[in-house]
Structures are given as C-alpha cells and as structure tokens.
Amino acid sequence: MNFKQVEAFRAVMMTRSMTTAAGLLHTSQPNVSRWIALLEKTLGFALFQRLGTRLIPTPEAEAFYADVERAFIGLESLNDSANSIRLRGKGLLRVGAVGMITQCVMPDAMRIFREKVSDIPVVVNTGGSDVVAKWVATGYCDIGFCSIHTDLPSLQYERINTAYGVGVVPKKHRLARKKVLKPSDFDGEDFISLPAGSFNRAAIDRHFVRDKRVLSIETPYATTICTMVAKGLGVSIVNPVVARAMRVPGVCEVGFSEKVELYSYAVTSENFPVGALARRMGDCVKEVFSGFNNALVDV
C-alpha cells in the first residue's frame, strides 16, 4: 500500500467517480483504476461495486475510509501547524480531545485559558481516545484529553474526572416523573446507544442483564444522543457532564440506580516535555469539570 493508492481511494470515495477523481488528482482514469485495483489486492477485500454507471462503496470501504479521513485530517493539520510556527515561532498549543470534552468542556476551558493567556494560538483536534493517544505519543499534540487508556508506551494518564451515568428522557415522557431509573424501567423503550464495542457502551450495557430495551439507534456522540432524545426518538444513559453542558430544551435528566463509571483523563508523553501552556490548559479543563460536578451536587 502506498500514498498514491490511498489518495486515489479517498478521491473516489469523495466523488463516487473514477473519472472525476482522476481530474482532482491531475492524472488519468486508467491510473486511478489501477491504483484502486492494487489497493484492493493489498487489503484483501473489494472497495467498490458497479451499479450501472455508479460506483457503490462496500461496507469494508466505508470502514476503511473513516480511518483514511482521520489520517488526512492529521496531514492537513500539519500544514496549518507549520504555518503557525512560521508566523509566531514556537508559541503554539496543540490539544487533542475526544468529542465529549471538545464539545462540552473545551469551550469553557478555552474561556478560562484566554483570561490568562490571550496571545497564544491554540489548535484543538478532535478524535477517539486511541487517536488522541497517538497524537500525544508522536508529539503532534502537547496534551490530550480522553476517556479510556490505550496500550501505547511512554504515555502518562491522569484521571481528571469521574462521572456516573444518568438517564436522559423527553420532559413529557412517563420516565421523567421518576426520581431514579432502574434498568427495568427501560423495558420496551427505544434506546439510543453509543457504538457497539465501545468502552462506555459496555459500561452501560452490563447493567441490563435481562435486556428488554429496544436498541433503535447507535451514534458515537453523547451530544447527538441528547439532541435525539429532545426530538422524541428515544431515551438513553449519558455522561451527566454532557447533559449539564448542553441543557437541551425538552430533555430531562434522571438519576440511574446503577453505578456507570465514566472517566476522563489528561494524557501526556514521557518523550516530550510538558510545557507551561499545556499544564495551564490541563488546569483549565480540571476547573471546568469541577464546576460541572458542583452543579450536579446542587441539583
């Protein structure tokens, strides 16, 4: 597998056309077809099916494309980083974080950070815990914030928050009248889940031994789950930080009888010095988490 093959695959996924992809890459259509064929041989599975004049990606292609996009986003961010270094020297803070922290914690953390440091550019990258760990391990990010440990060597994890899952239901739903939800209360309810196989999904599902939920929707972001709950698409269990940060109209937060522990970590690398800016950002993130926890106690 080489870069040309992967670049051709990405172009075809974006355009759904070998010919249009060739135009984007400033090459010929036969070259694109050849690169795709070589990539399929290397991967060991088909990437596209032809339906008339249309190219339909296979499920394997869709899964592979997600990883390819993450890699290309990293490459594009490297160019932005180089531009910032040229313009401002080494005064740049690069942060990696999982979606929940990026969407619910980083805005307030950035506000606090800016009150103390107003003239330093900050680049915030979003990815899964495994991607954030790789960014930190390679020095691409100065500090990361994630929800699970990875097995990458040389990384140091500091647990900065522990939250316990809460139920989220539409305000007019029958479950909104309860003070605490038990697993059996979800019987027969459309349940919006995190992706199968994810750590937090497993932490929730283990409490539903005699599971009678209707698992109707899966999505990787708790913020999306809360929005879907507001639309009446189902109920769920999420990190209370998300429910409190979003305050989605029409959504009611209800305690859950079982202990669903949801962790957040700051991650740094032993191979790269942790600068003052990264430490300060870590303190800002901790301060925001602390504020959410105090708010939860008051409710």
Structure explained in plain terms:
With 299 residues, this protein is α/β, with parallel strands linked by helices. The chain folds into three domains: 3-66, Arc Repressor Mutant, subunit A; 90-160 and 264-298, D-Maltodextrin-Binding Protein, domain 2, CATH 3.40.190.10; 166-259, D-Maltodextrin-Binding Protein, domain 2 (3-Layer(aba) Sandwich). Helices cover 46% and strands 22% of the residues. It contains eleven helices and 13 strands. The strands form four sheets. A five-stranded mixed sheet has the order 4-3-5-13-6, with helices on both faces. A four-stranded mixed sheet has the order 8-12-7-11. Strands 1-2 form a two-stranded antiparallel ribbon. Strand 1 (48-51) and strand 2 form a beta hairpin. Helix 10 (240-246) packs across helix 11.
Keywords for this structure?
single chain; 299 residues; alpha/beta; Arc Repressor Mutant, subunit A; D-Maltodextrin-Binding Protein, domain 2; 4-stranded mixed beta sheet; 11 helices; 46% helix; 22% strand; globular; LysR_subst-bd; WH-like_DNA-bd_sf; transcription regulation; transcription
Helix/strand layout:
Elements: H1 3-15, H2 18-25, H3 29-43, E1 48-51, E2 54-57, H4 59-88, E3 93-97, H5 99-104, H6 106-116, E4 122-126, H7 129-137, E5 143-146, E6 155-164, E7 166-170, E8 180-181, E9 190-193, H8 199-205, E10 214-218, H9 222-230, E11 236-238, H10 240-246, E12 251-256, E13 261-269, H11 276-298
Parallel strand pairs: 3-4, 3-5, 8-12, 9-10
Antiparallel strand pairs: 1-2, 5-13, 6-13, 7-11, 7-12
Helix pairs in contact: 1-2, 1-3, 2-3, 6-11, 10-11
